[in-house]
Amino acid sequence: MPYEYETDGAAIYAQSFATIRAEAALDRFDPDEEQVAVRMIHAAGMVELAPHIRFSPSFVATARAALEAGAPILCDARMVSEGVTRPRLPADNEVICTLQDPRVPDLATQIGNTRSAAALELWRPRLQGALVAIGNAPTALFHLLNMLEDPDCPRPAAIIGCPVGFVGAAESKAALWEAQPVPCCVVDGRLGGSAITVAAINAIASRKE
Amino acid sequence: MPYEYETDGAAIYAQSFATIRAEAALDRFDPDEEQVAVRMIHAAGMVELAPHIRFSPSFVATARAALEAGAPILCDARMVSEGVTRPRLPADNEVICTLQDPRVPDLATQIGNTRSAAALELWRPRLQGALVAIGNAPTALFHLLNMLEDPDCPRPAAIIGCPVGFVGAAESKAALWEAQPVPCCVVDGRLGGSAITVAAINAIASRKE
Q: NCBIfam families from the entry (chains A, B) (predicted)?
């Protein structure tokens, strides 16, 4: 006797988002933020994520305008860059992860940091106006904040700051939220990760549900 | 004034795992399971994941032996296949995701299911003795269970069943746990996802922490 289950992708999405909207505390979000938050919650499988999501007032509009203008998306991990749904991107935007670049191990030694942090040094030529998505490494987010302390460093348009884990994740996101060098979205505390980050990118890229 | 933070990757791992072992309820796991569970919790950023993780008694040993014997790892999503840390693999194992295969859209129409489910039809030549890792789509896990209802279908060595979400995730994992066609690991309920799944693979692949 075969297992019976919903096999229609569109119906699965619709039912998932309806469940999230019925269960999650979304009142404090404006309509654009709400769409992004719903997709982040969907990726996490947790309506309990809602109170941890924070947006700068102009974040969604700024990030979306950047993508519509053709900005690249700079990602700290391949699990982020590989998750972005290319057909949702408004300008066939480049999705870039420099972590596997052969220069990274030497750069890491040189700057005395992780490879995840060192990889951001290779973002500099593309950083101006980009959408930055950090969904894995707290050291990458901290290093970005230090890069942006230099007024001569190019400025991204917006930052998704969602590193995950037990060492530096909460601290780096709190530092981003406090500094707000550009409009940003964070998931506070230990929660975060590549799936939640990808979901935010995919929701910013297109309002389609 | 630059931000100060831990920049040594090995120290970050050690401190993260120590925090998890201090906070998470891990007593019910044997030593091999405990290592896998710790890495899954690390990826999720949630010690609250612990009570949701279930292992068949022989799961870790069976899955590890399969990898040591050169078994491929069959993944339902590129966020899973891209996350596997290749140097941890004991036999330079192939990591396969068929979701982007050009035959998949037609196959999905033909079998009346999602692309995630249809992609598994292309696993058949590699399925015997493989380690299966489903970290995204409930429809993929349900379709696998239906494939395995056929006694002529090749048998994987072990299954990591961790799809995430609000429609079919809890149900498909409960069905896997009930049927146990081969040794398996599941995260029950809505939680799961590619990061947790990748963490399980990486922990099975090598005991190195």
A: PRK08285.1
